Amino acid sequence: MTVIRAEDLTQSVADALQYISYFHPPDFIRAMAAAYEREQAPAAKAALRQVLVNSRLCALGKRPICQDTGIVNVFVDVGMEVTWAGGDDVDEMIQAGVRRAWLNPDNVLRPSIVADPDGARGNTRDNAPAVIHYRIVPGDKLTVEVASKGGGSEAKSKFTMLNPSDSVVDWVLDMVPTMGAGWCPPGLLGIGIGGTAERAMLLAKESLMAPIDIHDLLARGAANRAEALRIELFEKVNALGIGAQGLGGLTTVLDVKVADCPTHAVNKPVAVIPNCTATRHVRFVLDGNGAAEFAPPNLEDWPDLDAAADSGARRVNLDTITRAEAQTWQAGDTLLISGKLLTGRDAAHKRLVEMMERGEALPVDFRNRFIYYVGPVDAVRDEVVGPAGPTTATRMDKFTRIMLERTGLLGMIGKAERGPEGIAAIRDHGAVSLIAVGGAAYLVSKAIVKSTRLAFDDLGMEAINEFEVRDMPVTVAVDAGGESVHLQGPREWAQRIAAANV
């Protein structure tokens, strides 16, 4: 029998979570670098460059790749010849590791987990509890796969119960465009087929832990139906032209994974779960000889790229900007913004709207200001703010019209597309919506030179702050006329890809 000490498992989980917070898997970086070299769409190539530069900075500085440090997923294979020492509850051993990782003072991670999800939604403050799955397997070892799954990509998960004769490919191709850019492509798609509803979802999630090997598969050819499906979906999803950050381009997915299992004769459960540019997972094995050790990856796998924005970017002073000036910007324009901007996201917007409906004075003057949809990581050492990438702008669409009507807000910064409701409000009020690159949170934080808390301190990372920024790179997502780069870009590149394949 192998004896696993509770402390060894707890420390291994903590170390694994710290490790993946700042180290992308090397296979993912190699795939991203190859996509960067292939990319022809200027906006997508610039976004890929920012993701790669950010990843290298995080690997060197040991700070989070993304401000959304994720919900922890743990897959545990327990050998039948394993026994335990020093603990009564394996779940608690793992949860203790999550807490230890998130509260590490050298690399504080952002707590994103809320309890009472349909009620008070209070933050647990330590990112516990993790979502844990167990299997009892032959052997005398404990194998653990630890992943941190960003909320933006998790939100785009899809499930359906197809009829047996229905096409999985057709359904996936219908679903991917509805995911928008909130999952921060390019990344991976995990496809689970069969079993029952919950089994298909679990198959999809587990499949995302496998190495990126699609180009090896393309070179040797499919050996079975699942591999043939991977190739077909990889080619057809990329032909959609969605591209990096949804800006239009050649690479929407770096790989497609397919896992299946037997199912009922009248059912075909199918799940698709995307993984984003902040793909984070690592596997370790405990054999009774102490905690796991995690060797740093070879930084030569990371391309050493220039972080500078495109020379054609327009410099904008947020402290003197006028509505007339902002209305000259066109969807797809690149900007370098400097000056003061406000921050606020879901909880802050909800509270602001409730205050307006009660006729209360707002704690912040939004007139002719920009608001950044962000929930940053706490600062450590000499940082002004921790990693501070954007959250999905679409979630704020339902608040956009009232914010523009009643506060005099000029513009917004987030990631991904705006929906029809948000675009209509932006057009009707002559406002603008900008995007920063999702998955480049540490790089974005380097542009923030000052941070001041203004309101709603009790909301923690969702409080309203004032950031002073210097040359923060952004792209005009929706201009004052209601034109959206997330509609224009993919449409153009889908046509280009189709023409090239004729």
Please outline what is shown here:
By secondary structure, the chain is of the alpha/beta class. It has 15 helices and 19 strands.
Features:
502 residues; alpha/beta; fumarase; five-stranded mixed beta barrel; four-stranded mixed sheet; 15 helices
Set down the secondary structure blueprint.
Elements: E1 2-5, H1 6-22, H2 26-38, H3 42-61, E2 71-79, E3 82-85, H4 90-102, E4 114-115, E5 122-123, E6 131-137, E7 142-149, H5 151-154, E8 158-162, H6 168-178, E9 187-195, H7 197-207, H8 214-220, H9 225-238, E10 253-263, E11 268-275, E12 281-286, E13 314-317, H10 323-326, E14 334-343, H11 346-357, E15 370-372, H12 397-407, E16 411-414, H13 420-428, E17 432-435, H14 441-445, E18 448-455, E19 464-478, H15 485-501
Parallel strand pairs: 1-3, 2-6, 9-10, 13-14, 14-15, 15-16, 16-17
Antiparallel strand pairs: 2-7, 4-5, 7-12, 8-11, 9-11, 14-19, 17-19, 18-19
CATH topology of the domain at 314-489: fumarase
Question: Residue-averaged pLDDT, rounded?
Answer: 96
Which homologous superfamily in CATH is the superfamily of the domain at 314-489? Answer: Fe-S hydro-lyase, tartrate dehydratase beta-type, catalytic domain
The helix/strand class is alpha/beta
The proportion of strand residues reads 15-25%
| CATH architecture heading of the domain at 314-489 | Alpha-Beta Barrel
Determine Rg (CA atoms, Å). 23 Å
Number of helices: 15
> What strand order characterises the main sheet?
14-15-16-17-19
Total strands: the figure is: 19
